[in-house]
Every structure is written in structure tokens, then in C-alpha cells.
Amino acid sequence: MLLAWRLLLATGEPRFADLAERTLFNVIATSPSEDGRAFFYANTLHRRHRGTMPPADRVSPRADSGLRAPWFAVSCCPTNVARTLAQLPAYLATADDDGVQLHQYADAELATTLADGQGVALRVRTDYPSGGTVAVRISRSPARPWTLSLRVPAWTAGATAWLIDPDGQRRTVAPGTARLTRIFRPGDEIRLELPVAPRWIRSDQRIDAIRGTVAVERGPLVYCAESADLPDGHDVDALRVDPSAEPEDGPDGTVVAPGELGTPADPHDTAWPYHPLGRATAPTADPTGITLVPYHSWANRGPSTMRVWLPTTQSPTTPPPPTTPTRR
Description:
Blueprint: H1 2-11, H2 14-28, E1 46-47, H3 76-87, E2 93-95, E3 99-102, E4 108-113, E5 119-126, E6 133-140, E7 146-152, E8 161-164, E9 170-173, E10 176-182, E11 189-193, E12 198-202, E13 213-218, E14 221-226, E15 239-241, E16 248-249, E17 255-262, E18 285-294, E19 306-307, E20 310-311
Parallel strand pairs: 3-7
Antiparallel strand pairs: 1-19, 2-3, 4-5, 5-6, 6-11, 7-10, 8-9, 8-11, 12-13, 13-14, 13-20, 14-18, 14-19, 15-17, 16-17, 17-18
InterPro entries: Beta-AFase-like, Beta-AFase-like_GH127_C, Beta-AFase-like_GH127_cat, Beta-AFase-like_GH127_middle
Domain Non-reducing end beta-L-arabinofuranosidase-like GH127 catalytic: 1-89
Protein name: Non-reducing end beta-L-arabinofuranosidase
């Protein structure tokens, strides 16, 4: 995140603020436990085995238990997380000769001085990332034009984001930076409306480990399936999702993805695991809604399995047509 911030300062390119946001909500926020007393050393995207509770009075070498550990033999990570959280207000905005740029969205009171020595003050109110509305109210402004810039996250691509000016005029804005230049007056309010809704994500096909799977994001948040939300005896490796239907908002910040839950695999099954394509018996499965939770919140309910990249119901059932080798 620190590298992304410095690249943003050096270039002004919003893609670096996008990267900082993704890192903040899905890496830094994932590391500490909800009570702030334990930490992940590494953030895995797939946990196949339920972990064990790390001892509270021992140092964990790498926290390989599947749960956050209270401390590590190498202790730089928890202290760096604490430092980053303490510095978060500094990452929200910048100012230059033209005006003020908002890079990250949170409730805030911001004040700065422009190049000519005149002061600007803003009040930001939002429930982002739960909601997509960011309201910016001008508290103090010089009696001359200046530019307010707001980042429109890259994840809004394919949907519609809106910028509403103090006169109530609405215009669509594309991913990147939305700029509004005018004479602002105290009390003016500008609103950015971002399309925060669950959406399917696919990976680059060159990544072999997750080819043929999909993930779910909502706004800047990555979601995952956790065994704590499945019926007893079931595991995340037995579920499949249906990307032909849209995931929907669920209760308490969850997302419900359409899919099916297969029969749990027998850990003692020694049958040959490979079959001719199209001849293998399809595992029995029941259609259901798969509950997904924000990735940053996983492993707060005890030992569990988890996965971010989810297999789909659209598995091949017939062999591909034969090909003829090319001769030279």
C-alpha cells in the first residue's frame, strides 16, 4: 500500500489509488482479528484444512494454524499493520495548485491551503464500501474557481457511476477521475454515486491454479465461501456456483451466490481419481444459495475451511473434438 501511495503521489494516476484501496480492504483489513489481538502472517486464498487454535501464550513461527496468531517469531507484520492503520487519514486526499483530489472514501473533515494561500475545507460523509454514495460538502472555499477531483474506481467498469453537482445536475462518470471546476460556496454539496453491487469476477486464463473458477466482489471487497456458513458435514470444496445468474446482497453484509452443494467427499475413498471425460458419474448436488462473506472477515468464527475462487456448475461433460497434429 505504501508503494501504491508513493506512485500515486509521483504520477497522479488513479490506478495506484485503486491498488491502495484493494490492498487496504482485502489485505490489511484481513490481517488483524476483529478484536485486534491476533494476526495473519500470510493471507491465503484457499484453506483446505480446518486449523487449530494457536496457543495464546506462545509465539507462532508463521501462524500456519489457519487462524490468526497472537504473535510471531518475526514481528514486523503486526507492527506495520498498526502503523498503516494509524496513518490512514493521510491517504485520503491530496492538494495541488488546481485544487483538491479525493482518493479514498471515508467520513472525514479535510482542510488545506491552495497555492495562492486561500483555504479550502471539506466534509465527507459516506458508508462506503457498504454503500456507494459519497457526499462532499464544502465548508470553506475561495471566491474563485478551483477543481474538486474524485476517484471513480476501476471496479465500476461495466456499470454506471454518477456525479451530481451542487445544482443537482447529474452526469455519468467513467473509471478514472471525475473533475468538477467551478466557484464553490460554503454549503455546496457534491455527490458521487458508485454502483456497489455483487458481481462475478474471472481470472486471467494464464493462471493455471484457478482456471475455470470465478470469484465474487462487491464494490472494492473480495468475498469468499467459508465452511462456517455450510451445513454440518459439508465443505467448501463440495460447492459449485452458477455464474449464469447474478449474485445478490444477503443479510449482514453477506452475498448469496446461486449454486449447488455437492455430497461431501469421503476422506477414506481410495478409488482412482481420474475418469474419461463425459463418462464419470456426476456427483449429486442440491441447488442452493451459497452464502459468501467479505474475505477480510473470514476465520473469526473458529477453525474453518475457505476459498475465494469458486468452481462453477458449467463443467465440461463431453470430450472435445479430436485434433490432427500439424506436420512440418
